[in-house]
Amino acid sequence: VQLQASGGGLVQAGGSLRLSCAASGRTFSNYALGWFRQAPGKERVFVSAISRSGGITDYADSVKGRFTISRDNAKNTVYLQMNSLKPEDTAAYYCAAVRVDYADLRAYTSRWSYTYWGQGTLVTVSS
Known about the structure:
It contains no helices and 11 strands. It is mostly beta strands. Strands 2, 4, 5, 6, 9, 10 and 11 form a 7-stranded mixed β-sheet that branches. Strands 1-3-8-7 form a 4-stranded antiparallel β-sheet, with no helix packed on it. The protein is globular and about 45 Å long. The chain has strands at about 1-5, 10, 15-25, 30-40, 45-50, 55-60, 65-70, 75-80, 90-100, 115, 120-125.
């Protein structure tokens, strides 16, 4: 599956952005999905994940209550709505996908669980 992330940009602290990640090449509903971010000079870390069905989601503590992950299987797209942005949210954001069994309803939080990665979209939050 190929992933294309978009929606990044420059925003003031307290503002909002919505990231999108469009998938192509395979049956989208067979994949669990996640968002990770990587700040300059730092490791790529977990932000949010959503199960194949969309019924299970998970978030890093640093974004709980501010970010919301969702998916639209009809549009082959996963979204990350980011509200109340902080300067520490500045990073390149990457979407990721892993094919799972039909009965697998987990949201995967480890970067090592994912097989496919998008190219990243840059989010810059100014203070």
